[in-house]
Amino acid sequence: MRGHNVANVTFIQFSGEETTVDGTIGDSVMKIATDNLVPGIDADCGGECSCATCHVLIPEVWLEKVGIAREQENSMLDLNPDRQDNSRLSCQIELTNDLDGLVVNIPEFQY
Amino acid sequence: MSEAVQHDEFDHAVADPYALPMDSSFDVARGSIFQQDKQWGYFDRLRKESPVHFCDSSEIFGPYWSVTKYKDIMHVDTHHDIFSSEGGITIGDQDEDFTLPMFIAMDPPKHDLQRAVVSPVVAPMNLVKLEDTIRTRAAGLLDALPVGEKIDWVDNISIELTTQMLATLFDFPFEDRRKLTRWSDVATAAPESGIIDSEDQRREELIECLTTFTELFQLRQKNPGENDLITMLAHGEATKDLPERPLELLGNIILLIVGGNDTTRNSITGGVLALNQNPAEYDKLRDNPSLIPSMVPEIIRWQTPLAHMRRRALQDTELNGQKIRQGDKVVMWYVSGNRDEDVIERPYDFIIDRAKPRQHLSFGFGIHRCMGNRLAEMQLRIVWEEILKRFEMVEVVGEPERIFSSFVKGYSTLPVVLHPKK
Question: Where are chain B's structural domains?
Fold first, then answer.
């Protein structure tokens, strides 16, 4: 049995390479990536929703559970000309038990 | 004119910051302080004793708040609903009869629409296409330099390279490219800097810039180029009618020229200076050129080519215990936040392999964050890759001359000697 305070997250690079790591419930997906040295997430501002360099794409099956971007996140995502409908900033996604097994795609470039 | 001379004489004596009273007369926004590289003590004191500080003694800029701690700067930068960019983003106000509207000095929603038109040209996807051109031009320039004799790094490399880059981005007539440099200098020149003699002269030269770009704009409307900024503006939904709003067209052009000119130019120079002042880091770099990608953001932090950005409070608000009133000018001193020991370890040290090198304020944060940040990093990376291939050392052989400005933090000359690789 897995502990209640841990859930796993899989990061898929643009190249297709996958990394699955354990994340602590309550941490942001951005923090889980940077703590585990997953490449492709820059997170220049350190999780303040103000640089948009932790951009990820959410596969359709996870979209509902992950939810949509709020106002500030939206305005930051809008700065990115490569924004997609399923774009999120990973610093604004908090890991919950519901998201155990979450898969996110990392774009080719951070803006 | 006589007023300018007075300021000049008055300003040349830069006081020891520790000898001044810490009250509303404590004024760091003087070009002379930066020209003499004496701002550090001023900001050290402000961060320690009065991190959000009100100054009402500036004859040039009027009353303003200085925000000097990293976290407070982040707060101001990310609250664009309270701290407005409308009307200007430098401590000095623009000439009232000749205000240039540009999206850096706009609030949403207009800001978002105009920025969205031009931002694709500097998006990473597009940069991949530019990399080869930039590398070829940088290589050509470095190959043509004389080795073993004293040259000015600023004019020969930093200015030339950034100007070539700008000409490429605009697809601007290559032989006229130094006009871009001149317009950038004219647009940002402090009144006492000596670059222009009067506001009339500034206006005259900028109108020449407008005329040139209006013609280019109309040309590209008929014959679109492949990938350049002017073509994008000329065909963008929110910008294609810009020639009908000439000041706005000029504003956006100047923004792109200044944004891509002073900043990169002074970071290219700053990197040479930083490595010469830190020979152990230069050795580290020579031994391991794969550190270039982490050195580049460290150069940008260390240099902080734009010392500040300014906002204006839209409402009464509180910041780190200070009551800011609606209408007050609020200056975010990026140059100070980038030396804040509470956030950046050993902030005064130049370390090319820092753990989190991109954690710095030089690009700003929030919706006005530098649009060209990836282009800037790419240019610096290519320049250093090409330098290391050719030269054992770019040796600084004299003191740099610095610019008289509390906005553009940079250099007018840096004497160097190039030593070829053994």
Answer: 2-420
